[in-house]
Amino acid sequence: MKIFHDEKLKQINFLDERFYTQDNVNYYPSVTTILEVYPKGYGFTQWLKDLGMNADEVVKRAGEQGSKIHDAIFKYLSGEKLTWVDEKNEENYSIEEWKMILKFVEFWTTYKPEIVAKEISLVDKDLGFGGTIDLVFKLEDKLFLMDYKSSNAIHKSHELQLSAYATLWNKLNPKLLIDRVGVLHLKAKTRGPNGKRIQGEGWLFNEFERSYKDAFKLFKHSQEIWLEENPVWKPKNKIYPDFIELKVEKKK
Asked: What is the third-level CATH fold of 2-241?
């Protein structure tokens, strides 16, 4: 959830990130929310079982790690200076997070792409969903759509996620159509550069065998299942006062 503090109204607003809106009236589910219905596969399910009672905590930490890396990359691309430790010599990032951030920096400084859009949130009522695209850039006269992943593996749901993002982008930017989509996998097992692929040591721009247009057909099936299970949806936005005070009458 996103948190906004309105000082004038003295309120804290907790906004549900699973939904997108253009007018604060009509809401549409996010791509990742829709894909919660898509199976992660036997390997992922078995991994959760092996974790047992610790599964929720491990998944939560992985999500927090991914969010920190996304935030760091956004700051880097915005020209901000990133440091591993702060003025008090305390870590801003774990060593694992810092290594993955450096892998992105290696990709960026090696290939020198041209930014078209970064961390851009889009929604379309006809498509019926919204999403936040990590990065759109130009490289060698091609328009790329990229998502960063710090997970141990790339799943088919990631392919469907990017197919939906590319379709959404194309719908809203008909003069800037996406040529190539892929995941910048920051935990890849690559050992170094490869002339045929965009990769380096421990990172890889992972493209998918089928076109994103074909993959989007499978996403649409997932969307139909989600709508079947969620015929009426509404974001869970909550508002709380930003202070509390008990006025105690003084005894005379």
From this structure: Trna Endonuclease; Chain: A, domain 1 (3.40.1350)
